[in-house]
Amino acid sequence: MSSMKHIDNIPSTPGKFKEKSSYNRLRLHFSIAKLTFWSFVFLGLIFVCFFRSPSSSSSPASSDLSRRSLRTSSYDGPAWEKRIKASAKIRSRNGISVLVTGAAGFVGTHVSSALKRRGDGVVGLDNFNDYYDPSLKRARQTLLEGAGVYIVEGDINDVTLLKKLFDVVQFNHVMHLAAQAGVRYAMENPSSYVHSNIAGLVNLLEFCKNANPQPSIVWASSSSVYGLNTKVPFSESDRTDQPASLYAATKKAGEEIAHTYNHIYGLSLTGLRFFTVYGPWGRPDMAYFFFTRDILKGKSISIFEGANHGTVARDFTYIDDIVKGCLGALDTAEKSTGSGGKKKGPAQLRVFNLGNTSPVPVSDLVTILERLLKVKAKRALMKLPRNGDVQFTHANISFAQRELGYKPTTYLQTGLKKFVRWYLSYYVDGKKSAQ
Ligand SMILES: O=C(O)[C@H]1O[C@H](OP(=O)(O)OP(=O)(O)OC[C@H]2O[C@@H](n3ccc(=O)[nH]c3=O)[C@H](O)[C@@H]2O)[C@H](O)[C@@H](O)[C@@H]1O
């Protein structure tokens, strides 16, 4: 208050020397006050930025990514630990304890609930980002909570969170399904693929290799790694060095990274190449899902075709078949051989195709949807865009059949019928808006 008075008393036209020097003293005083004020503002800003960042280990590109993540790191406190322990409790004789990353995702939800149903201990981890409508992820979370699966809210890049989780539960397995999915979105937001599929994977493996005991890891690769491969059906030994999208390149990189961690640290690693997985609670960014939405809205849909009107087809695989493959991979996964960052012997390293073995043209997919929805689609044929899509996928699954007992049994018609029934009950009867 008194300094305010002084400032008010400063003559507008300093005249005599004496007056001038007292004016200078006042100016100095004012400058120090100003400097102190701005220093506080600056420190305050640093404080706010630091504590609002999702984790101290996040990548430089994470400012954009943290906006996509609604909330992270919900950890801490005895109540939190109690919920995790309850969720991780094994209820069957030969049960396993599994950390499922991406548990609020499409495949993650189905795998978590199947594991829980058979008596395994399951804890989920998901960052609930808004790549697609997060309310669908929240609905899946509610479903899992009802089944006794708790999902921790956080990012796989958060080392502190991973440490806390492993301090509370000694997981024998990690089912790593958290990823930035989608082939076409990679051109829009390339850094999100690097953040989740590369940095996130490395962070998780770094953590697992140091764990004692090391868990065994089963993780989601993708049929897209076959890229421009023309030899069909695709076998695991076929070339995968010609990815057609950044998404495929990050999944392929993941397979190489898995090799390294297996080789150096003795981590047991199994990669699953999923072939266009579809079904109830699916991903709204996938064609069968948004075709359904747009057909019901009377909007036209683009059906891609190759050069010279060539057929574009996918080996669409139903979610329940995929879940069986995931469980088969977990059940046949051998123990990692290292501990505390040191390898003690060779460890298991596997890659499997999980497909349906019967590719269906996209136009046939639309015909099935029309029949199930009882609405005629407004079809617009479009040349396959050069943004990462490949013309054809077809899995050879004999290796998975032999090693995992994997045997898909769902025809596209049957699977889509189940999807459409779910879609109508969720969006139409449930009055949710399909974005
Ligand atoms: O199998 C895989 O590895 C991949 O499967 C899907 O990728 P994709 O097969 O391209 O699935 P959709 O995006 O649902 O496309 C299905 C088919 O519809 C076609 N399509 C897509 C969009 C569209 O507007 N029109 C259209 O004809 C695509 O070319 C493709 O043949 C997933 O999005 C990936 O995350 C996954 O890794």
From TrEMBL:
Gene for this chain: LOC102586200
Entry coiled-coil feature ranges: none
Protein known as: UDP-glucuronate 4-epimerase
Gene Ontology MF: a single term: racemase and epimerase activity
Domain NAD-dependent epimerase/dehydratase: residue ranges: 98-335
Oligomer status and interactors: Homodimer.
EC numbers, comma separated: 5.1.3.6
Residues passing through the membrane, by range: 35-53
One Pfam family linked to the record: Epimerase
Cellular component GO terms, alphabetical: Golgi cisterna membrane
Stretches the record annotates as Disordered: 54-73
Keywords assigned by UniProt, alphabetized: Isomerase, Membrane, NAD, Transmembrane, Transmembrane helix
